[in-house]
Design goal:
Pfam families: Ribosomal_L18p. By secondary structure, the chain is of the alpha+beta class. It has a single domain, classed as Nucleotidyltransferase, domain 5. It has three helices and four strands, in the order αβββαβα. The protein has a four-stranded mixed β-sheet. A hairpin with a 4-residue loop joins strand 2 and strand 3.
Length: about 120
């Protein structure tokens, strides 16, 4: 039976996450989620099970609410890098989930790197 797009996405997300966890044990995870309208990022400590920092295009202070574009992703990436520094985090690994690494996902990662976060 043919698998749905959602099933394939979930399978790809788990495959990416499991490979990254095997290689980057003990490091923090920069996890992203992209919907049709927004993009968000979280800095997660999997050992303790807590989120240390987060940023989203839904936040009014970023000024990108309702904008589904690369500029919004760049602002979210810069914001997560700034909040990671405040939390004392300099290094994390990038968990793109099941999303392909291009467009908004790539823009967010590049902005986080420019903001000083090593991913």
């Amino acid at each position: 039976m043919a698998k749905s797009k959602r099933d394939l996405f979930l399978k790809r997300r788990l495959r990416v996450r499991n490979k990254l966890r095997a290689v980057n044990a003990g490091r923090l995870r920069l996890s992203i989620h992209r919907s049709n309208k927004n993009i968000s990022a979280q800095l997660i400590d999997d050992v303790q099970g807590v989120t240390l920092a987060s940023a989203s295009s839904l936040e009014a202070d970023l000024g990108v609410v309702g904008k589904n574009n690369i500029e919004a992703a760049i602002k979210v990436g810069a914001t997560i890098a700034e909040r990671a520094k405040k939390a004392g985090v300099e290094e994390a690994y990038f968990d793109r989930g099941g999303f392909l690494y291009h467009g908004k996902v790539k823009a967010l990662a590049d902005a986080a790197r420019e903001g000083g976060l090593k991913i």
